[in-house]
Write a structure and sequence with these properties.
Elements: H1 16-19, H2 22-29, H3 33-36, H4 47-56, H5 63-76, H6 92-97
Helix pairs in contact: 4-5
The structure holds protoporphyrin IX containing FE.
Length: about 100
């Protein structure tokens, strides 16, 4: 598929965390995308696809664990960072600017 524009090959998943539920991705979408979108080119996440995908991103483990790690990664994309404590101490330069 060298002629294809890669940016149009699959959707940008950076907003997935806002719209998709983890359980739905894992149990409805990934096992067989064509059940939900007939004719889609997204592959079903069978053992072989999971293994190939995991190998390409250096994930190891049980298929279920690797799939969950992948989904957690996708859901982390673009998500606001939570639980980052607000600093209370001030640097010298911040004090000087007060
Ligand atoms: C983990 C969460 C993922 C979600 C929520 C997701 C979602 C989607 C969606 C909504 C589409 C468009 C379906 C359509 O309209 O035909 C799509 C297409 C596709 N996805 Fe995924 N995907 C995920 C992971 C992956 C992974 C890991 C791979 C690689 C193994 C993959 C490969 C593809 C491919 C090849 C297409 C077809 C693009 C095309 O038809 O041009 N996806 N995906």
């Amino acid at each position: 598929m060298p002629e294809e524009n890669l940016s149009q090959l699959a959707p940008n998943l950076s907003l997935a965390y806002r719209r998709l539920q983890r359980d739905w991705i894992l149990n409805r979408w990934l096992p067989k995308p064509s059940d939900l979108v007939p004719g889609t080119r997204m592959p079903s996440f069978d053992q072989e696809t999971i293994a190939n995908t995991a190998a390409s991103i250096h994930l190891t483990g049980e298929p279920r664990e690797m799939t969950e790690a992948l989904v957690d990664y996708v859901l982390s994309l673009g998500a606001p960072t939570t639980n980052v404590p607000t600093p209370t101490a001030k640097t010298e330069s911040a004090k000087a600017a007060d």
